Amino acid sequence: MTGGKYVVGPYRGLFDGPGVKGFVLAGFIGRMPMSMLGIGIVLLITALTESYAMAGAVAATTNLAFAVAAPLSGRLVDRFGQARVIVPFAVVNALALAGLMLCARLDLPQWTLYAAGLLVGATSLSLGSMVRARWSALHGGSARLHTAFAFESVADEVIFVTGPALVTVLATAINPYAGLLVALVSMLGGSLALAAQRRTQPPVRADRGGGGGTPILIPGIALLSCVYLALGAVFGSVDLITVAFAEEEGVKGAAGFLLAAFAGGSMVSGLWFGSRRWRISLRGRFVRALGVFAVGLLPIAFIGDARVMAVALFMAGLAISPTLITGFSLTERLVPSSLLTEGMAWISTSIGLGVSIGAWAGGRLTEAFGASNAYGFALAAAAVAVVVGVGGSGLLRIPDAASPGKP
């Protein structure tokens, strides 16, 4: 009981400020599609065309378009404010997704699916970055921000646990369009609700750092982007390979449970990590979390039982949230306030791009060598993340003077 109070205590009062509950809820609903879109597209196109190759290619086109466009839309948000960017992007994104479904329904030429998928990805907003920017505007430079980022990391894990399961049930039990329709409504409703809450919107600040450049040119942000690209490859490959592993073990229906164990470990650690008041520097926490994550992954390549694998994935997942939380916290400290949304979008898009690469590589390696051997790719990607993160950790030292516009 005492332990529960210790964990929950720091979160008390976090949502008491004016408008806080509103933007947290809107942001959560609005970014549900980030875990639903890819699998929803695959389920729809395969149901109509029976072509996994085409379905995967359209989903990859959407993911890559988002990876390229997210930092650009983040820059627009920093320059013009969240509300002025969210509304037109959300409306066009909804129309593009509706167009994709219509193209599939009418059996239009394949290029129309790719074109619609490209537009869907290009107009998808990184709402998680915008919500974190609102937290930064409220609690920048305080211990509260660490707790807020921990909560957002847990929220992301909840989305990644529930989203794929929800869209799969809707697409298979109701009709192939149902999952994407729910994703469309969630995105549009949550995005417009977030845009309407201007009271908590971060103020638009002129760049007083001189030059008005892009955050990716900041050495520490470039380093973090490389690390999270590798970590995204871990996430993408583990998700795909684990489904194949469950099928190889004759328990395909347990694949969702295994993936939930991976995300569940991250949720548990996120709540605990956010409840702590740390004496170790952000850089120190980041390096340690990376190392623990890589070591925690090692057993999965040597397990041949689904029940043991569930435990191993849960343990490996324990280091995910601490790594993400410290990465976003470092970004908040390294990037000028005038470029904060774009800076966080670079981190999110690096993860997303890594997930696409990991899923592609994991699929190829699984077909060629089997699921257990394919896990070696995830281990190699984690090792790359550790080498890059630890080797370049000097770039993550927080300057004595706060970034412009920050405490």
UniProtKB/TrEMBL annotation:
Transmembrane segments: 23-45, 52-73, 85-104, 111-131, 177-196, 216-235, 255-274, 286-304, 310-331, 343-362, 374-396
Gene Ontology MF terms: transmembrane transporter activity
Highest taxon of source: Bacteria
Cell compartments where the protein resides: Cell membrane
Residues annotated as domain Major facilitator superfamily (MFS) profile: 220-407
Protein topology in the membrane: Multi-pass membrane protein
Pfam families: MFS_1 (PF07690)
One Gene Ontology CC term in the entry: plasma membrane
Keywords annotated in UniProt: Membrane, Transmembrane, Transmembrane helix
Major localization listed first in the record, in broad terms: membrane
InterPro entries: MFS, MFS_dom, MFS_trans_sf
Protein name (Swiss-Prot/TrEMBL): MFS family permease
Species assigned in the record: Nonomuraea muscovyensis
